[in-house]
Amino acid sequence: MRLIVGLGNPGLKYERTRHNIGFEVIDRLAESWGISVNKEKWKAQVGEGHAGGEKVILMKPQTYMNLSGASVRPALDWLKGDREDLLVVYDDLDLPPGKIRLRLKGSAGGHRGVQSVIDHLGTREFKRIKIGIGRPSTPMPIPDFVLSRFQGAEEKAVAEAVTRSVRAVQEWIDHPFAEVMNRYNR
């Protein structure tokens, strides 16, 4: 069983914003695998199905970004899952738009949603895909920036990053994450 969590904020107001790129990856995976992410469970929208012979759970926490761990922990507990089966996808300010980085573990790097997951799981050791959203080019509060939409050339770069992230998740179903990580982090 694989639990794939995309971080974001619920509601139309936040759709297509930088902070919701994790939700976009979940939506694309759901479309690719024919899974409806429409059940309400664990304070999240959830979809269940199969991919590559594995049972997969796609999840979009509805707790708002900073409380994401309040959905992830009960889901992992209920599924009697191991952290080895968990993958979290989210935005990263420190990567340029369009760049992705896969990691087996790490700090939150200032990302409050990831910090919530770390706090609720009691560990930094879980798989993740970070998708670059860059930093503001003009002085702007970070909360305003992450809740803004991509502009111009960023849109194409980010769309390609979402596609690469979806492919990386799909490859993880059939291959060890370290192998996938080495391929995508080049």
Automatic annotation (TrEMBL):
Keywords carried by this UniProt record: Cytoplasm, Hydrolase, RNA-binding, tRNA-binding
Enzyme nomenclature, EC number: 3.1.1.29
Record keyword Hydrolase present: yes
Catalytic activity as recorded in UniProt: an N-acyl-L-alpha-aminoacyl-tRNA + H2O = an N-acyl-L-amino acid + a tRNA + H(+)
Superkingdom as given in the UniProt entry: Bacteria
One annotated Gene Ontology cellular component of this protein: cytoplasm
Active-site residues per Swiss-Prot or TrEMBL entry: H19 (proton acceptor)
PROSITE patterns: PEPT_TRNA_HYDROL_1
GO MF terms, alphabetically ordered: peptidyl-tRNA hydrolase activity; tRNA binding
Enzyme class: hydrolase
Function of the molecule: Catalyzes the release of premature peptidyl moieties from peptidyl-tRNA molecules trapped in stalled 50S ribosomal subunits, and thus maintains levels of free tRNAs and 50S ribosomes. Hydrolyzes ribosome-free peptidyl-tRNAs (with 1 or more amino acids incorporated), which drop off the ribosome during protein synthesis, or as a result of ribosome stalling.
Subunit and interaction comment: Monomer.
Recorded family membership: Belongs to the PTH family.
NCBIfam families, A to Z: pth
Descriptive protein name: Peptidyl-tRNA hydrolase
Species assigned in the record: Melghirimyces thermohalophilus
Origin organism lineage: Bacteria, Bacillati, Bacillota, Bacilli, Bacillales
